Amino acid sequence: MGKDSLYDLAVLRIPSKNVNAVAEFGNSSKLKRGEPAIAIGNPLGFSGSVTQGIISSTNRTIPVESNNASIETQVLQTDAAINPGNSGGALVNIAGQVIGINSSKIASTGTGSNDDVEGIGFAIPIDFAKTVIAKLETSGKVKRPMLGVSIVDLTMVPNEEVKQLQLPSSVKTGLVVTDVQSSSPAARSGLEAGDVITEINGHKIKSYIEFSTYMYTELNAGQKVTIKYYRMGKTHTTQLTLGSKTFS
Questions:
Q1: Where do the domains of the chain lie, and which CATH numbers do they carry?
Q2: pTM (2 decimals)?
Q3: Neighbours of 117 (CB within 10 A)
Q4: What is the per-residue pLDDT across 108-163, written as a single tens digit (0 to 9) for each?
Q5: CA 204 to CA 211: how far, in whole Å?
Q6: How far apart are CA 227 and CA 26, in angstroms?
Q7: Is the distance from CB of 142 to CB of 4 less than 8 angstroms?
Q8: Residue 30 contacts residue 51 (beta carbons within 8 Å)
Q9: Cα separation of the two ends of the chain
Q10: How do beta strands 234-241 and 36-41 pair?
Q11: Cα separations (Å) of 111 from 101, 114, 115?
C-alpha cells in the first residue's frame, strides 16, 4: 500500500482469508526502563526466532539516513539480541503487545579489533510508527516539508571561505546555502547561495542534522515559516511556504 524509506516502514495488504490472528499494538509512551522486551524476527535467516531482554532506555536518539537526508530519530533501546534479519520484526511486551519495530543495533565502536558491542539494539516506538502507518494506509506515502536548498554545516566550511561570508564574530554555527533549486520555496523567498541560515521560526539551527530533524518532526508541508539568515554579514528574515517531498 505504501512505504517510507526514511524510517524503513511499509504497509502491505494481505487477503483476510490468509490472516489467522492480528497483533495488538501497545503504548510505547508508557514504557519504563527495566520492563521485559521480546524481539521477534528472522536473524541470519533463522525464521521465527525470539530473543528476550529488557527496555534499556525509552528516549535514545540515533541518526537515520535516506535519499540524502539525515535526521536524529527517537528510538527504544533494548538488550534483546537484534541481528541482521530482525529489522522489521516486532518488539513486544510481556503481554504480547507490539511496542516497537526492530530497526538496528550497534555492533562495533569502530575503535579497534577488540571493540565488539553486545546488548545495544534499537526499535522504532510503536506510537511513532502508527502515525507513519496511518499516512501510508490513506495515501500510500508520507509527505514531508521541503525548502529546496543544498546546505552544509558552517563548522564544516574551511576558514578562508568562512571569512568571505563576512559573518559577525558571534555567529559560530548555522547552515551555509550552497545551491538553491529553481522554482523552489527557497528560490521564491529570495534565498541565495552563500546565505547562512541560523533560525527557522525562532528555532536556532546549529547543524544539518538538527535542521532536518526539526523540519521532519516539527514542521509540515504547506506550512508558512520565517527564516533568519545572514548575507554578507547582514541579518535578514524571509517568509516562505514549505514545499513537500516523499521518501519512497
A1: 2-139 (2.40.10.10), 143-246 (2.30.42.10)
A2: 0.72
A3: 11
A4: 334 444 455 566 889 989 988 898 898 899 989 888 899 999 899 999 999 999 99
A5: 9
A6: 39
A7: yes
A8: no
A9: 11
A10: unpaired
A11: 29, 8, 6
